[in-house]
Amino acid sequence: MPIRTTAASSHSPERTELCADELLLLPDYLLLADGPVREHAVVVANGRFLDIGPADELVARYPLLTPLALPGKLLMPGFVDAHHHLTQSFGKALAFGEPSEIYRRIWVPLENCLDDNLLYLSTKLAALEALRGGFTTVCDAGTRSDSDVSTIAAATQEVGVRCVLGMICNDLGGHIDARERGAIVARAQAHLAHWDGHALVHPSLAISVPEAGSDGMLQTVAALCAEADAVFQTHANEHLASVERSIVGRKMRPIEHLHHAGALGPQTLIAHATLVTPSELNLLRDTGAAVSYNPVASSWKGNAVAPAMQMAALGIRFGLGTDGTRSDAFRLLDAAETAQRLAFGFATGDSSCGAGKLWVDHALRGGADAVRLGALTGEISIGKAADFLLVDLDVPEMRPSWELEWELVRLANRSQIDAVFVEGRLRLWHGWPVDWDARAFLREVDEAAAAVVARAPIQRVHAASFSGASAARVQVNAPAVAAS
Q: Residue 5 pLDDT > 80, yes or no?
């Protein structure tokens, strides 16, 4: 049966048409798990993909729905950011050009100065950036602010991004006794229970780095997450300094330490894992633990690149993460493939480094699996959440088109994202929210960020390369701040 053409379907739909409760969408391309297809359609209802199939069949099957043709558009799953720091968005270029372990000198001092309002503003800014960059799900590693993480949840819900909400459970680095450890566990249990079953917020527990948790706390928090089908997050094997501290202090490397403490398992998500030995890779594979491969973080402030190609060959689960660097999913795809070529492909003569499909898969389904949301999001599939993008392919950069997944990795960019949907609801249209004033919000952010950066005891190794009031806000060579 030919596709029925109506006034609504003979041209690209208007924003108002895409705000309907039920949608029958007919894009030029639909990106499914097996690859892109043409002449297919989707039905969106109640926040889910109700039906998927050949366009003429769906048009006939749903005569009460007006088909909305999307000429020149790709309908694809929203990207999953497997590792983010939502409450660090006020820092940005303060960390550029700085040596590794910037969390000690920049992020901890900055986050410790965030009250409830600043935490809300910082999170909302990061969430907006994420949606603009094509991420419909972000996995937040937890904040060091004393404010309640419900503030983070409120901000992400207002923006409309799906959030894996981490709560930090560190019990070392200060004078913490058994009673305080018990209180940490109680808060962790309450956090998991409070957000269980929420539509957009998915609870997670975190210990910043293995050295920040006692063996007992590492084991307990990981077990709580396993029981709740939640993610246990930690940073491991990212920098030489942290690996050496673990070897000196524990006689084990960080991932070995996690395994010794009983904290490695399918619920575990390791951020970075750049400096890993063959035996540690085997531990990740054998325990089913997942990794967030963060190539931009490696480029900007890391000591190494995670061997993601080897992880793929070993069957180690991994997604792609920004680490809060820049929320641009297409540039992340490009960085993921490029980093593997530079770090490993050149030396071995591997000119494809997994090809485009590998990186697209790990940015979508692989990321959803890594954050334990694979049953909910990450692909266009009947019954899964309607978290998706409409991407404009009718641009010079994408023409002529020969292999779409390679082209998404190397040629596509954020400016091509026309619309972002989460739970079947239009959240962004041409980069801006449809139901709140983001430009007024940005003016509020400028003022708030200037004030908090001015008073935070940030320590930069390098002086700012510019002069004036903005540069004077940042203390250079201030006293070092202890990690916690």
A: no
Contact of 167 with 146, CB cutoff 8 Å: no
**Residue 475: its pLDDT value, please?**
53
Predicted model pTM = 0.93
With the C-alpha atoms ordered 340, 341, 342, 346, is the resulting torsion angle positive or negative?
positive
Residues 176, 476: Cα–Cα separation, whole Å: 31
Spatial strand order in the sheet of 201-206: 79-84, 135-140, 162-168, 201-206, 231-236, 268-272, 290-293, 317-320
Share of the chain above pLDDT 70, in %: 93
Q: What integer is the mean pLDDT of 68-85?
A: 97
Tokens 């030396």, residue? 347
State the Cα angle at 233 between 161 and 32, rounded to 5°: 50
Residues 440-449, mean pLDDT to the nearest whole number: 94
Query: What does DSSP say about strands 162-168 and 201-206: parallel, antiparallel, or unpaired?
Result: parallel
Q: Are 461 and 477 in contact (CB under 8 A)?
A: yes
Token duo for residue 129: 């950036």
Distance, CA of 124 to chain centre: 14
277 alpha-carbon distance from chain centroid: 26
Instruction: Characterize the bridge pairing of strands 432-433 and 40-45.
Output: unpaired
Q: 155 φ, ψ to 5°?
A: -65, -45
Convert the chain into a string of H (helix), E (strand) and C (coil). Answer: CCCCCCCCCCCCCCCHHHHCCEEEEEEEEEEECCEEEECEEEEEECCEEEEEEEHHHHHHHCCCCCEEEEEEEEEEECEEEEEECHHHCCCHHHHCCCCCCHHHHHHHHHHCCCCHHHHHHHHHHHHHHHHHCCEEEEEECCCCCCCCCHHHHHHHHHHCCEEEEEEECCCCCCCCCHHHHHHHHHHHHHHHHHHCCCCCEEEEEECCCHHHCCHHHHHHHHHHHHHHCCEEEEEECCCHHHHHHHHHHHCCCHHHHHHHCCCCCCCEEEEECCCCCHHHHHHHHHHCCEEEECHHHHHHHCCCCCCHHHHHHHCCEEEECCCCCCCCHHHHHHHHHHHHHHHHHHHHCCCCCCHHHHHHHHHCHHHHHHCCCCCCCCCCCCCCECCEEEEECCCHHHCCCCCHHHHHHHCCCHHHEEEEEECCEEEEECCEECCCCHHHHHHHHHHHHHHHHHHCCCCECCCCCCCCHHHHCCCECCCCCCCC
Which tokens belong to 255? 């991932």
**To which residue do tokens 């398992």 refer?**
265
Give the separation between CA 152 and CA 103, rounded to whole angstroms: 19
User: What domains, with CATH codes, occur in the chain?
Assistant: 16-77+379-433 (2.30.40.10), 79-370 (3.20.20.140), 440-472 (no CATH)
Q: Tell me how far apart the alpha carbons of residues 447 and 442 are, in angstroms, rounded to a whole number.
A: 9
